[in-house]
Every structure is written in C-alpha cells, then in structure tokens.
Amino acid sequence: MDFETKRGMDMKKKVAITGANGYIGRFVTKTLLDNGYDVTASDLCLDDLDPRASVCREPIFHTENNIYEKLGKPDCCIHLAWKDGFVHNSPSHMENLSAHYEFLKKMADSGCQDITVMGSMHEVGYWEGRIDQDTPCNPLSLYGIAKNALRQSLILLSKERGIHLKWLRAYYILGDDLHNNSIFTKLIKADQEGVKEFPFTSGKNQYDFIHVRELGRQIAAAAIQNDFEGIINTCTGKPVSLGEKVESFIKERSLNIRLKYGAFPDRAYDSPIEYGDSRIIEKILAATELREG
After folding, report:
1. Among the options 23, 37, 68, 143, which is catalytic?
2. Residue 191 pairs with which residues in a beta bridge?
3. What's the pLDDT band for 9 if we cut at 50, 70, 90?
4. Is 172 among the residues known to form the active site?
C-alpha cells in the first residue's frame, strides 16, 4: 500500500478529543481539522472551540451514560483533559485519578480500541540527562504520581483488551502564553503591570522546551498512527538552560524587565538537565507529514 492510499484511509478516522478547548487541546484539534480529520470535541467550556469540530457536552466522568456514543463512536480517543495541570501538588490529581481510569476503561469496553493519553515528564521525577521509554519513574509531586499511576493501570488494561495505547510524555511547554500559567505568562503580566525586576532562580537548569503549536502537531501525529505504541516522548530532544530561554523571550517580546537571579532557590525535584529522547516522535512526524495547526 503506498503512502497516499494509506493516508486516504487514515483520513476517515473519527477522533474524539477531551480537553479539546484547553491550552494544548485547541492546537491538537486545529491540527487534525486542518488535515481533514473528523473531530468530536469535549471540554468543560467549548465557547472558543474551532467551529469545524463536532461538540460533545456530556460530562466524561459520568460513568452511567454511554460516553462512547456521545463522543460519536470514535476510532481514536485523545485524552488531554486534566484539572490543575500547572498546580503540581493540587489534591485534585489524586481525587480524579479513578475517574480518568474509569472513563478510558469505558471507552475501551464500548469499542474504542485506539487510545492516546497525555502524560508528563513529571512522572519520572528527578533524573539527570535524556529520558526514554525505559527510564525508571519516581514521581515527586501529586501530579506526577497521579499521571504515573494512570499510565501503569492503562498498560494493564491495554494488555487485557488488546488496545492500541499511546502514552505521550510532554516536557516544558511554551507559546500561546496568555492561556497558560508558566513563567513566560508571569513575565508578560509583570511587564504589563510595570514591574522592572522579576525574581528568578539561578536559571542554570536545562530543559526540553517545546512550543505548544508544535506539541499539538506531535500529539496529533502520534495519535493517528499505530506503528509505535507505549511511551512516546513529545519533545524536541534539545536541552536549553532556563535562563537562556527566558532572556531570549524577554528580548523577543521587547519586555522592559530584567531577571533577579538567585531570588528563588532551584526546586529540589528539578534536575540540572533533563530532556526527552525524540527519536520515535521524529520517525512518526516523518511518516505522517501532518501540517501544523
């Protein structure tokens, strides 16, 4: 089967996206729609959703309803919904853990055999160097613990049900800065308020930064293929120091603010260098050739 024929068959896939109107979800949704996929979107708020998507307003955690049918009986489910993703020790991570599992189990039991879930490098905890699919996990926050537990439980479920499970591990996300809660968002707000000096860490730690638009493309590409399953790093594979990235951001945005290095200590659970192994996602992107949304 040649690539164009295979691509034409893939274009018939129906994709359901939870958290579709969120910080990451809106870019995944747009990428799939721009590339001709049939998308059903689910989120707590759908007011700013891309109008080309079908909408499911049914709460996904109400297990008594037939959520698989409500989501349009999708061929593929991309589960991005997650409360308090920027608040790493929020109690909600553990409180909602079972609900995430029950939702995905119900999707699998109802007929959705292709499931993609958004993970996080915080599942790994403290690690120095490159992270691949075999890197051991020792999460040090409630967010990381909950994500790791969901991943482990879904691995068991996928083996029992024969599910195509893709667990996508994201790293440090930037872009669309007014819709997130990162240091880049805080810098913009501080500059708008006339703050001239921004308290900062040492800035020496090196991370794998990825623009949310590119992350959306990587998530979409990983979800629609089945050559690679299990843990897939959605990343650049290139570590950059936090100080260098933030100084570059300040310069690019022409912000009238400077960093006060050393005002905050580096967090104990942050590694001096941590980045993803990008080899698998690079192969996926080369094969799918999705346009960026």
Report:
1. 143
2. none
3. very low
4. no
**198 belongs to a structural domain:** no
Do the domain assignments include residue 202?
no
In the structure encoding, which two tokens stand for residue 243, read together?
A: 């100080």
What does the block give as tokens for 89?
């020790």
Is residue 201, in this structure, part of any structural domain at all?
no
* pTM for the whole structure: 0.91
Contacts by 252-258 with C-beta closer than 8 Å and gap 24+?
Answer: 253/187, 253/188, 253/191, 255/187, 255/188, 255/191, 256/191, 256/196, 257/187, 257/190, 257/191, 257/195, 257/196, 257/197, 257/198, 258/196, 258/197, 258/198
Say if residues 41 and 29 touch (Cβ distance below 8 Å). Answer: yes
Q: Tell me how far CA of residue 77 lies from CA of 60, 81, 126, 174, in angstroms.
A: 12, 11, 30, 24
Q: In whole angstroms, what is the distance from residue 155 CA to residue 150 CA?
A: 9
In a domain, 50, yes or no: yes
- Roughly how many angstroms between the first and final C-alpha of the chain, as a whole number? 27
pLDDT tens track for 106-158: 999 999 999 999 999 999 999 999 999 999 999 999 999 999 999 999 999 99
Domain that holds residue 30: 3-174+210-235+276-288
